[in-house]
């Protein structure tokens, strides 16, 4: 029997090693790909709405000038002069801005990198925002993502859909309207039926069920935003007739602080009890207060007046077409009586993406997605 030459033995060994090296590279690439978030799904209110309210009958719309004056596509339904936090986080992640669920173009491959279900006026409770007539409450947004999930299954199959949802970033921003457009409204029956503690408990028990529904649909990586300092937004300052000096309305902030103080441990409990899930708490309240208390640090010259609106604090009449607006949006914290400027959103998105535990806990978005 003739033995193979040393040359061929070496060649076989070389090819074997080369093959192992290539397989190793492919495995590493696969791990990197799986670690990279595949999509971003967004739920919430006008702070994160990108245009769903354009497609319903509602008084809460932002698809007209001067909204979007600094956004590349102009007025889209975003309640700001430019980009909002989900847009900015998507850019950092390297995926497209999630389109509004109700847009007729949000179908087919367009949904594979995420969908935005948020709606101005919406809340945790179905009754929240009733004064705007039309809005898409959180429970309806959950039905919409159930529909989207079924569509993704049709496109790529169940296994790949599970992978998309498990790797995706889920942004949830709810609770503000449950106070300003429900509990605090003049004549609200909710404030008669519930004291502040009972109302807070109702919100959080309902919210926990809703977040669990997202988990059951396949979500694993959640950034849940706390409620910002609502007592400091121009609309609430001007509505407090006793407040003549632009100070925050403390009793409103007290409601918010109570809600946030209970939300954080609730998210920790969900993380502990739902296998494989991480619910990280974005501290919108303290971040907003840092802008207000240290405006110069962020380049803000004005933190009580809105940029667009009329009347005291430019908050008595909201922003609409034909209303004057400030020329330098960069030095304003608030764009209109309720919503931040793009400049504020940039600071917030940066903090949520790579900030420390004082602004996002237990991990920031970058760590959450790693």
TrEMBL record:
Protein name: GDSL esterase/lipase
SUPFAM superfamilies: SGNH hydrolase
Keyword Transmembrane: yes
Membrane-crossing residue ranges in chain numbering: 9-29
Entry keywords, A to Z: Hydrolase, Membrane, Transmembrane, Transmembrane helix
Entry similarity comment: Belongs to the 'GDSL' lipolytic enzyme family.
Keyword Repeat: no
Pfam family, any one: Lipase_GDSL
């Amino acid at each position: 029997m003739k033995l193979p030459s040393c040359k061929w033995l070496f060649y076989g060994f070389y090819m074997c090693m080369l093959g192992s090296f290539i397989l190793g590279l492919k495995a590493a690439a696969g791990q990197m790909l799986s670690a990279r978030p595949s999509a971003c799904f967004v739920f919430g209110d006008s702070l994160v709405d990108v245009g769903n309210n354009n497609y319903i009958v509602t008084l809460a719309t932002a698809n007209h000038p001067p909204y979007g004056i600094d956004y590349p596509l102009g007025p889209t339904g975003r309640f700001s002069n430019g980009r909002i936090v989900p847009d900015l986080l998507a850019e950092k992640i390297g995926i497209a801005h999630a389109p509004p669920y109700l847009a007729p173009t949000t179908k087919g491959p367009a949904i594979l990198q995420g969908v935005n279900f948020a709606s101005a006026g919406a809340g945790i409770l179905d009754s929240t925002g009733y004064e705007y007539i039309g809005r898409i409450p959180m429970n309806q947004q959950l039905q919409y993502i159930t529909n989207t999930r079924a569509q993704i299954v049709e496109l790529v199959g169940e296994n790949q859909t599970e992978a998309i949802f498990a790797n995706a970033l889920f942004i949830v921003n709810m609770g503000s309207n449950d106070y300003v457009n429900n509990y605090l409204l003049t004549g609200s029956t909710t404030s008669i039926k519930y004291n502040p503690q009972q109302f807070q408990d109702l919100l959080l028990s309902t919210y926990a069920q809703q977040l669990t529904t997202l988990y059951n649909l396949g979500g694993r990586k959640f950034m849940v935003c706390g409620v910002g300092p609502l007592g400091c937004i121009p609309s609430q300052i001007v509505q407090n007739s006793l407040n003549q000096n632009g100070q925050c309305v403390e009793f409103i902030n007290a409601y918010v602080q109570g809600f946030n103080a209970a939300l954080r441990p609730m998210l920790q409990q969900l993380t502990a009890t739902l296998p494989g899930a991480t619910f990280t708490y974005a501290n919108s309240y303290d971040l907003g207060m840092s802008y207000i208390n240290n405006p110069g640090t962020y380049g803000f010259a004005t933190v009580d007046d809105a940029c667009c609106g009329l009347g005291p604090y430019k908050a008595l009449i909201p922003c609409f077409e034909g209303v004057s607006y400030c020329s330098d949006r960069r030095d304003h914290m608030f764009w209109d009586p309720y919503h931040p400027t793009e400049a504020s959103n940039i600071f917030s998105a940066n903090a949520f993406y790579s900030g420390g535990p004082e602004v996002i806990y237990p991990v920031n978005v970058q760590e959450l997605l790693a």
